[in-house]
Design a protein that fits this description.
Two copies of one chain form a homodimer.
Chain A lengths: L4 H8 L3 H9 L6 H13 L6 H8 L4 E6 L5 H14 L5 E6 L12 H5 L6 E4 L3 H6 L9 E4 L8 E4 L1 H14 L5 E5 L8 H16 L9 E3 L4 H13 L6 E4 L2 H14 L8 E6 L10 E4 L2 H17 L10 E4 L2 E3 L7
The structure holds a DNA duplex.
DNA sequence: GGTCCGCATGACAGCGGTTACATTCGCTCG
DNA sequence: CGAGCGAATGTAACCGCTGTCATGCGGACC
C-alpha cells in the first residue's frame, strides 16, 4: 500500500538503483535525472523505508544515549543538545537508562538493549568502570563519553577542577575564609568529576593557607533535599563555615532553603556558590559556575557522528574536547 | 559477521521459521524445542536484527513523542513516564520537536520526519489545530493526545478546570478575596488547558461573588522570567491583589522573586499558589496543585500501545483518561 | 577510424528476518 | 483400519532497499 522505490522508478522511467542514488544525493547521477526523480518523489509523496534502507545498508540509523537516570535539569539539557546536534544527520536518538548500581539497578545491561540497533553511543556522566560493566565497549561501535574524561576514549567534558577553582577563588576574593563544601556522594567517589572539583577546592584553600577541615565537607546526594540536610549540618558546626561551595545548583537550592529557615541571609553571614548554571540560579540569586550543558550534548553528537563516518577513514585521534565554564556572581556571594 | 537466525537454526537443527517463532514467544512451538532454541541463542549471544525484523513484519518498532519543545520540567517528566510505560514493549521512543509556530518554527513538519518510522504517536501539549497542521492525523497510525482533550481522539490529561478550582478555592478558604491570575499566553489562547484553568478560576470567583477584573490577569509566558514580570505588574496595581493563582509553578517562582525583591512576604501580605507540582515547589514553600506528569506519560504509552495492537481488533472506544490533581498547601498561601 | 576511458545507468543478488502455506506425524473417532 | 484433525515444523516467497558488477555510450586520443 505504501509506495516503494519501484513506483518512483517506474514513474521516472529509470531503475530503482538510480532512484536510490538520486534520492540519497550520491555522486554520478546526471543533474537533470536527479532533479526529475526528486520532483517525482515529492509529487508522489514518497519517502524511503528506513527499515529496508537500514537492513540493506547495514547501518542502524540510530545512536543511543546511555545515562544512569532520566530526569533532572542536566539530563534534559544534554538531551536537547544531542538532539540539536543530530539534526543534520538522519539518525534517530535512542535512550537507555541504566539506573544506578545499588540504587535503581536496571535488570538489563545497556549492552543487551542497544546491541545491533545503534551505530554509536554517547555515555553520559557515567564512571568508566560502569561504562565497561555495561558492556558498552564490546558493542563494536564508537563510544563518546560525556562529562567524563578517560584515556583512550573520545570525550567531551568541562574542566571540573578549573570550574571549582573559579568558584572557590571567587569566595576567597569576596573575603570569605572558612569555606565549606557540599559534594554529591561521600568523597572520594567513583565519579571523576566530583574528585576533580574536590581537588580544585582544596588547591585554592591550600594556596591561600585556608582551613581544610574534613568536617567542612558534607555530601548532598546531588539533590535539593540532600543539599538542605548538608547545609543544616554545616550550619551547626562551631565555628561554622562562612561560605560554602556546592557541587551542584540543585543542592545549593536546598542549602539556600536551610539558610532561610534559620534566618541566615545568603551572601552576608554565609555565602554560597553553586555549580551548573541551572535555569533558576538567576531567579534565586545564586552565584554559580555555569557549564555549557547543551553545548556538551551538541559537541558529543558531532564527535560521535564523525567517528561513525570515519570508521574506515584515517585513524582518528582520541579527540577529547574540554569546554569552558563561566562564573556568575550574584547575591548569594554578596554581589 | 554478526550472527543470523540461520546460524541459530543450524545449531539447533531446526528451520529459521521455528527459531523465529520460538524467540518471539509465539504459540505452537514445542516447549522443549523452544527451550533448546532459547538456550542456544543465548549461548551464541545471538540477538535479532531489528531492521530485518521490522522490514519483514512491516512494523516500525518505534513510536514518537511530538512536542513543541524539548526542555523544562514538564517535558522531562512526560518523557520519563513514557519511557517507563514502554518498558514492557520492545519499542523505541523517538522524539520530534516542532517548535512553536511563530516563535521557533521548525522547518520540517512532524509528518515528514516520522512518516514510515513509527507505529504510533503521542502528541504532547499541542493544540488540536497544531496537531492537524503537523499532519499527524494523516500518518495512518494511532495518535494519543497528552495533556489535551479533543472529541474523537484518545487522550490522557488532567482535569484542568478542576485543578484550577481547587487552587482558587484554597485561596478563598484562606480568606483572600482579591485574587489575581498569571496565565501563560495572553488569554484566550489556542491552548485548551489554559482556557479551562481560566474557567475554573472565574467559576470560583463568581461563585463567591469576588472581583473578576481583567486587570487582575497577566500573561507570564510559562517561564520564570515571565512570571516575575507578570507579578511585578500585578503588585503595581492599586488596589493590588491579595492572592495570585499562577498557571505554572515556574511562573510562580518568578512571582516569588518579584515579591522578595519588593519585600512582600509570600503567604502574608500576598498569597501565591502555582500549578504543576514541580520538583522545587516544596523547597521554595510554594503551594501548588500537582499533576501526575510521569503518570500521564506512562498511561499515554499504554493507551497508545493498546491501540497499536488493537488496530485490527474490535473497534476500540475513544478512550480518554483523566487523571486527578492534588493540592499541596504550603507557606506561600499562609499554611 | 579504432581503442580506451569514464560517466550515467541498469540488472540483480542479497540484507536477515517473517509468514502464508505445505508437510509430517501421532491421535481420535466412526 | 482409514479418514480426519490439529499441533509442530519446514519451505520459500517476500519485505523494500543498497551495493556490486555489468552495460551502454559519447568523446578524447593517437
Amino acid at each position: 500500500m505504501a509506495l516503494t522505490i519501484r513506483d518512483v522508478a517506474r514513474a521516472a522511467g529509470v531503475s530503482t538503483a538510480t532512484v536510490s542514488r538520486a534520492l540519497r544525493g550520491l555522486e554520478n547521477v546526471d543533474p537533470d535525472t536527479r532533479a526529475r526523480i526528486v520532483r517525482i518523489a515529492e509529487e508522489l509523496r514518497f519517502s524511503i523505508s528506513p527499515s529496508a534502507s537500514r537492513l540493506a545498508s547495514g547501518r542502524a540509523g540510530s545512536i543511543a544515549i546511555v545515562t544512569p537516570f532520566i530526569g533532572g535539569w542536566y539530563f534534559t539539557e544534554v538531551f536537547a543538545g544531542l538532539e540539536s546536534g543530530l539534526q543534520p544527520y538522519d539518525v534517530d536518538l535512542l535512550l537507555h537508562a541504566t539506573g544506578m548500581p545499588g540504587v535503581t539497578a536496571h535488570p538489563v545491561r545497556a549492552h543487551e538493549r542497544i546491541r545491533r540497533r545503534v551505530d554509536g553511543v554517547v555515555v553520559m556522566g557515567m564512571p568508566l568502570e560502569m561504562t565497561e560493566s555495561e558492556g558498552l565497549f564490546d558493542l563494536d561501535v564508537p563510544v563518546v563519553l560525556l562529562g567524563v574524561q578517560a584515556p583512550g576514549v573520545p570525550s567531551v567534558c568541562i574542566d571540573d577542577r578549573g570550574g571549582a577553582v573559579d568558584a572557590v577563588e571567587h569566595l576567597v576574593d569576596r573575603g570569605f575564609e572558612r569555606i565549606g563544601l557540599i559534594s554529591g556522594r561521600p568523597l572520594p567517589t567513583m565519579f571523576v568529576p566530583e574528585n576533580d572539583r574536590l581537588d580544585g577546592y582544596l588547591d585554592v584553600l591550600h594556596k591561600h593557607g585556608l582551613p581544610t577541615d574534613e568536617a567542612l565537607r558534607e555530601p548532598g546526594e546531588f539533590d535539593v533535599r540532600g543539599g538542605e540536610l548538608a547545609m543544616d549540618r554545616l550550619l551547626s558546626l562551631r565555628p561554622r563555615p562562612t561560605a560554602v561551595f556546592s557541587m551542584s545548583d540543585e543542592m545549593a537550592y536546598g542549602a539556600l532553603r536551610a539558610m532561610n529557615r534559620r534566618g541566615v541571609v545568603p551572601g552576608r553571614e554565609v555565602a554560597i556558590i553553586g555549580f551548573d548554571g541551572h535555569d533558576l540560579a538567576d531567579t534565586f540569586d545564586l552565584s554559580t559556575v555555569a557549564q555549557p550543558v547543551r553545548e556538551l550534548g551538541r559537541v558529543a553528537a558531532n564527535l560521535l557522528m564523525e567517528r561513525i563516518a570515519g570508521v574506515s577513514a584515517s585513524p582518528l585521534g582520541t579527540d577529547s574536547v574540554v569546554l569552558a565554564t563561566q562564573l556568575y556572581a550574584r547575591r548569594s556571594t554578596g554581589c
